[in-house]
Amino acid sequence: MNDPAEGGCLFRLRDLSDVGTYVVDDRGHIVDVNPRAEQILDRAASTLMGKDAHDLLHRGKYGEPLPRSRCAVRQVLIAGETRQGDDEWLECGNGSLLPVSWMVTPYRNGEGDKGALVLFREGSSPGLAEEGRRPSASSMAELDRLALLAEATATLTASLVVDDTVRQLIRLVVPLMADWAVVDLFTEEGEVSRAAVVHYENGVRVHRRELEGPMPPVPQESSMPLSRALRGVTPSLVGPQDYQGPPDSDIAVAQRELFDGTGMHSASIAPIRGVREVVGALTLGRSERSAAFTPDDLLLVEDIARRAGLALDNARLYERQRRVAETMQRHLLPTLPRVPGLQMAARYLPAPDASQVGGDWYDAFVLSDGSTALVIGDVVGHDLDAAAGMAQVCNMLRAYAGEVEEPPSVIVSRLDEAVVRMAETTMATVVFARVERAAGGWRLRWTNAGHPPPLLAERDGPARFLDEGSGLLLGTGLSPGRDDATVDLPPGAVLLLYTDGLIESPGHSLDEGLDRLAQHAVSLADRPLGAICDALLADVRPADNDDDVAVIALRVPG
Questions:
Q1: Which residue ranges does the record assign to the PAS domain (predicted)?
Q2: CB atoms inside a 10 Å sphere around CB 173
Q3: C-beta separation of 402 from 392 below 8 A
Q4: What pTM does this model have?
Q5: What does pLDDT average to over the chain?
Q6: Residue extent(s) of CATH 3.30.450.20 domains in the chain
Q7: Other C-beta atoms within 10 Å of 487: how many?
């Protein structure tokens, strides 16, 4: 919060040392927090600022996410009235639940923007689930059961990454329904892997890594509950007594070891079904709480497992698409030519998100007149179509560049006309350059179709962005005139061509990204080109950028 002299509030949050306090804006995002709140919640301010307070902190008494209709902060923002209570639960940084007494009141800052001030302190609540006294799922009201299923649908389908989906599944059911959660999944090769074994201990979900890993094959003739679930047969209520007899398979032995190692006295096992096939099995177990699972519980577990199956199926389809696209991209990325008098290196880094497949590419090849062509490009989009469009644009550019000796602007103009005629609408940015021998050295001639400008970094001088020769991106259908630009390449200087994934960030301006790139390039100019590319990807690429990146570097030796 700002000081009064600066037009802010009449107090500072750090002065409220005996209660946890945070402020949200009119969207419910945290804009200020005091040290006591950091201490109580076991969360640093940096992990709270800018986050949606409801999604990050607010939980039901069993640890389940709350619908927004039950958010006290949102009610205050809408009604403009102060409210208080002692039946709120907040999730701490270590995953434990904290009962709090709370008060929420509306406020306006010095600029007149609306928000809410939240004050809370640690408190006890008779509704908190205590050790050995947690209610079973069957004791949940029907409305709560429906809310849990709705939350499962919304939460599980929000991610397209298998590991994230498994993590959210466990978060939904532990500790609300069970002390233990076990997720077994089929791999792409048809084998079974115990993907997660999680125990709720002292308010924290703990992964038991020693119980995770590859599982024995699933025999078709096995009648044991886990084998039946992995074959898609109906779910089962299970106890350790079901595995005390002679095992009929190795997977039954593994399951008996699971019961022995966890102390579970009651479990529900349900198949996790995808659209076309079974993708795994979900086992929920109870060891600390005395109540055994009931048939009603089992029906709820089956419903949750079914929703998890659809989400996991979608996540795997996206991961397969990503692998196909990445394979296509990597096969299209060239082996850099060896050109006497020039040094070259290049790198390609895929997007960190499995659902984001980009169309970035680089290319380098020797032209018929002996000059060297350099290309960096980015097809608009983040899917398999973008990768396919990249392949077509890349091949067409190679074909046009190799036909006749023409300036880069003419070749890119012809490429633009061809892109417009493609069956699938494609838009792309590209820099096409020729590195030519000149009197006593080398010269760069290039044209730029809507792409971030090349960077020329000298050892003893400032970095310079080559902004000349810029024009519209490809595929607009406007047939713009294009220009060429030229620059002499100083001996020892490094020329960098890159895609926007290296510099763009949702949290910073483009100018900041370009400045960061220029500063690092100058400091790295003496290193080998491969090391320069690796360092730029590690230190310049923003952590919150979800795009792929291509970089190509060239140096004229001194």
A1: 8-74
A2: 26
A3: no
A4: 0.54
A5: 85
A6: 20-122
A7: 17
Instruction: List, in sequence order, every residue forming a beta bridge with 205; answer none if it has no partner.
Output: 200
Residue limits of CATH 3.30.450.40 in the chain: 142-321
- Encode 335-383 in three state secondary structure: CCCCCCCCEEEEEEECCCCCCCCCEEEEEEEECCCCCEEEEEEEECCCC
Angle at 355 between CA 352 and CA 357, to 5 degrees: 75
Per the DSSP assignment, residues forming a β-bridge with 280 are 185, 272
Instruction: Give the architecture (CATH level 2) of 20-122.
Output: 2-Layer Sandwich (3.30)
User: Which string of b and e fits 79-110 if b means at least 16 CB within 10 Å?
Assistant: eeeeeeeeebbbbeeeebbbbbbbbbebeebe
Residue 131's pLDDT band (boundaries 50, 70, 90)?
very low
Alpha carbon 55 to chain centroid distance?
A: 17
Per CATH, the homologous superfamily of domain 142-321 is GAF domain (3.30.450.40)
DSSP 293: P
How far is 497 from 466, CA to CA, in rounded Å?
10
Identify residue 409 by its one-letter amino acid code. S
Domain topology for 333-556 = Phosphatase 2c; domain 1 (3.60.40)
Is the model's pLDDT at 181 over the cut of 60?
Answer: yes
Residues 64-117 have pLDDT tens digits of 777 766 777 777 776 677 888 887 889 998 888 888 888 898 887 767 677 888
Q: How far is CA 227 from CA 251, 255, 285, 396, 411, in A?
A: 7, 10, 17, 53, 62
Tokens 């029906």, residue located: 299
> Is 552 within 8 Å of 364 (Cβ atoms)?
yes
Calpha distance 89→175 (Å, rounded): 14
